[in-house]
Amino acid sequence: MIEGLKPYAEYKESGERWLGQLPSSWELRRAKFLFREVDERSRTGKEELLSVSHKTGVTPRSQKNVTMFMAESNVGHKICRPQDLVINTLWAWMAALGVSRHTGIVSPAYGVYRLINTETFLPRFADQLLRTPLYADEYQRRSTGVNSSRLRLYPEAFFRIAVVLPPPDEQAAIVRFLDHANWKIDGFIRAKRKLIGLLNEQKQAIIHRAVTRGLDPNVSLKPSGIPWLGEIPRHWETRKLKQCITRIEQGWSPQCDGQPAASNEWGVLKVGCVNKDKFNGDQNKKLPATFLPDFSLEIRDGDILMSRANTRELLGLAALAENPRRKLILCDKLFRFRPLTLCFIPKFLVLALRGQPSRAQIESSTNGASSSMQNIGQGVVKGLWVSMPPLDEQAVILAALTEATDPLNTAIARTEREIALMQEYRTRLTADIVTGKLDVREAAGKLPDLPIGPAADAFTDEAPGDSDMLDEIEAEES
Fold first, then answer.
1. How far apart are CA 458 and CA 179, in angstroms?
2. Is position 19 within any domain?
3. Edge-to-edge strands of the sheet including 84-87?
4. Interatomic CA distance for residues 311 and 271, integer angstroms
5. How many domains does the chain have?
6. 253: helix, coil or strand?
7. Are 95 and 244 within one domain?
8. At 93, is the secondary structure helix, strand, or coil?
9. pLDDT tens-place string over residues 238-250
10. How far apart are CA 103 and CA 38, in angstroms?
11. Residue 428 contacts by C-beta under 8 Å, 6 or more apart in sequence?
């Protein structure tokens, strides 16, 4: 599809260093000549609540995986209408904005801008252009605030930004070409995510069998007396988790910077650090210099972390911190504890806690103010029933599981990397096309109509668990 794409025949200097050259027939106008700010407020709060994400633009919040409490009333929220540009003022630096296709309400802290002439500046083209990394960098340069975590893009600063404006027919050709490109890319990513799901199912089946029945298929079983555990090997024990672990701790969540901490800086973990099979210390936010770190909350090797607040499917997930880097702090959405050495090998306990018996117990005990935001208390965690093999058998099971699941983990990692590369490719391709680096006019004219309607929602490949930054964006609305 992109074979044969070439630059335009003639270019001119844009006059903006960050934009460089533009095709000679394209114009450049300040945003103030293309948009006007609107401030229409909801009187009832009953309109559809919309989310603004750096990945998916403006979408109904009902379609998102938002892990936060909902406001008691949405009266006074700003109304946006189809073709309005909505900008999260606080997170514009990461392109948390988009042109809406919906009528709904957004946070009063957001900026809502209406296109002055939708025939001169096509809404679909505006959505693609203004969410590129090139423009995100410009939003950051023009945002103001006392520190990097509180940068705000105010209307007067947005209106001064130079906006690329191709002729309308070229805008339409660009949108048509990107519709086809996104349709193909989304299909590729969906197929890869389906493969990852199947590989994970296979891996979880292997783990579940091993941590609930052991490795011997002919082992003698006995009733555990616990509905969630069922039958267990006769020589295994059942314990409540509180009998097997040290004291449970909760963390601290000060107002942090938006970006992750550097390796020599203090960072506060995000709840997403336990979403995957392994602890991910990169899921953190930089602690501002105005805060002194709480050294007692620094993550140590061997800590087991468990999410205490998240969506239902992510609530109560556990991960083992193995040789974590220094200067990572436990947040208040996580529990921390360690297994007693006479009861469990840490890795084995984590596998048991991520297994279906523990998941069933956790999901039956959740509470929360909304269907998306759920919580568990320490009492729920302490009351979890777990089956406990002898320590030497735990070691044998772990070794067998490593051998059985390593090939699956390799395949999953490779597939995830393919998805990441395709997402990077999409971003680069979109940026090159909407800024005139590549000419798609001829190619767009040869494309057939899409078989399932316009693939207009760019960046719709958000995966489960990808909503962590969205959660932070949404939290700012409160």
1. 8
2. no
3. 35-38, 111-115, 84-87, 97-99
4. 11
5. 2
6. coil
7. no
8. helix
9. 999 999 999 999 9
10. 14
11. none
3-class secondary-structure state, position 321: coil
Instruction: Identify the three-state secondary structure at position 434.
Output: helix
314 and 453 fall within a common domain: no
Tens-digit pLDDT profile for residues 386-419: 999 999 999 999 999 999 999 999 999 999 999 9
User: How would you label 69-89 residue by residue, b for 16+ Cβ within 10 Å and e otherwise?
Assistant: ebeeebeebbbbeebbbbbbb
Strand ranges (DSSP E) for 241-373? 249-250, 267-269, 284-286, 304-307, 309-310, 318-320, 328-329, 334-337
Q: Which run of H or E residues covers position 106? A: strand 104-106
Domain boundary among 371, 388, 405: 388
Count of Cβ atoms closer than 10 Å to residue 424 Cβ? 10
Please tell me the pTM assigned to this model.
0.84
Residue 105, domain extent = 27-181+443-475
Considering the domain architecture, whether residues 72 and 140 belong to the same structural domain is answered as: yes
91 and 240 share one domain: no
φ/ψ (deg, to 5) at 405: -100, -15
**Strands, E assignment, 174-260:** 221-223, 231-233, 237-240, 249-250
Looking at the fold, whether 41 and 141 belong to one and the same domain comes out as: yes
Residue 35 CB-density burial (10 A; 0-12 exposed, 13-18 middle, 19+ buried): buried
Give the residues of the chain that fall short of pLDDT 70. Answer: 1, 64-72, 146-149, 368-372, 452-478
Q: Enter the tokens of residue 22.
A: 């533009």
Which residue is associated with the tokens 């336990």?
Answer: 274
Compute the distance between CA of residue 142 and CA of residue 136 in angstroms, rounded to an integer: 10
